Amino acid sequence: MISISEIHRLLDGYARDGLTLATMGSHTALQILKGARDEGFRNLVICKRGVEAVYQQFGVADEVLMVDEYQQCLDEEFMQRLRDRNVILIPHGSFVEYLSPQRIETELRIPLFGNRMVLEWESDRVKERTWLAHAGLRLPKEFKTPENIDRLVLVKFPGAKGGRGYFIASKPEEFERKLEKLKLRDKERFTIQEFVIGTRFYPHYFYSPLKDRVELLSMDIRYESNIDGISRLATILQDNPPEPSFVVTGNIPVVARESLLPQILEMGQRVVKASQELFSPGLIGPFCLETISTEDMEFIAFEISARIVAGTNLYINGSPYSHLLYPEPMSTGRRIAREIKEAVRDDALERVIY
Ligand code: ATP
Asked: How far apart are CA 19 and CA 299, in angstroms?
């Protein structure tokens, strides 16, 4: 485990007027790089061979560092090259997936925007549920044993990428039949969760420790295959429906009915407060709640992502919500750079970098 004081010591050695914001070339890198530049920072992208063309073509990166494997980012020599450039790393979904929360916590000796402890809380389903419950959010009912299944449920597996491998069932026998088909070795490690029917909303928040404020920057709905395709053919497929899957293939912009906004804002605030109580200094910067609004207009939250999410790519040029908060186009990537800029100005970088 790398201590916070060790990271802050590294930060002490950085020239405040020569900082570089860096990330890996994937996920939300384009908006992170553009946002850094818009806020006056030098930027850098770490690319696996073959993907650099995207960043060169869009002309958003000041420097491209090539690697054969992303794991190379953890080599001492490579980390020293980053520290020589006064690099602050901005984590995103692929970044966390490639390096793993454990290795980021124990091996990545580079200042990181946000609290690296949060990655462990969001990636472990038990800890995640503890956090959301502590925040007083409504969660989908979970069934400890399959015998008790009395409604439509979604069976989730750990580390499922974008819902791949999930299945649905509505009776214990159906569950057993489908589980058997999967021929799993480790049968214990699934979660049986009530399938909540309603409208999905994925609000993108930003918590600023400097302002002690939770901002709602934008919102999306994920487009998922094949479930969203099935709905178009529901009547035709009713005699022989395929097994639904939930693989993210795109993102659709959405605004919520205005009377739902108080609940949406409150959920964000509660999650931040709970994080501060559970793992001080808690969540810092961007996060997203995956929620479903029921017909009673109540929100049920089934997941949290405690870093920038891909749905924010819809809003590189700002969103209706960010437009109310900021006169300039404020993407989540740019908002991260703005927080770092204000922290430098206030001599408070150690409040946003861990
Ligand atoms: P990611 O890490 O990309 O968020 P994941 O593998 O953790 O994906 P989830 O986000 O938990 O998967 O779920 C994938 C999709 O399944 C959701 O976007 C949603 O459409 C659906 N889903 C998940 N949980 C529920 C639920 N309890 N009720 C209804 N739909 C759900």
From this structure: 40
Tokens at 96, concatenated: 């966390």
| Strand pairing class (63-67; 42-48) | parallel
Domains plus CATH for the chain? Answer: 4-114 (3.40.50.20), 123-137+197-342 (3.30.470.20), 142-194 (3.30.1490.20)
Q: Does the C-beta of 229 come closer than 6 Å to ligand 1?
A: no
Residue of 231, 302, 308 to test ligand 1 pocket, by largest number of atoms within 8 Å of CB: 302
Average pLDDT of adjacent 10-residue blocks, the chain of 354 residues: 94 97 98 98 97 96 97 97 98 94 95 95 93 98 95 86 81 93 72 96 98 98 93 84 89 97 98 97 98 97 97 98 98 98 98 97
Ligand 1, atom 1, lies closest to the CA of 162
Nearest 5°: phi and psi at 184? -80, 145
The count of residues in the chain is 354
Residue with tokens 């993102």: 251
Residue nearest to atom 12 of ligand 1 (CA): 163
Ligand 1 center from residue 157 Cα (angstroms): 11
pTM, two decimals, is: 0.96
Beta pairing, strands 87-89 & 167-169: unpaired
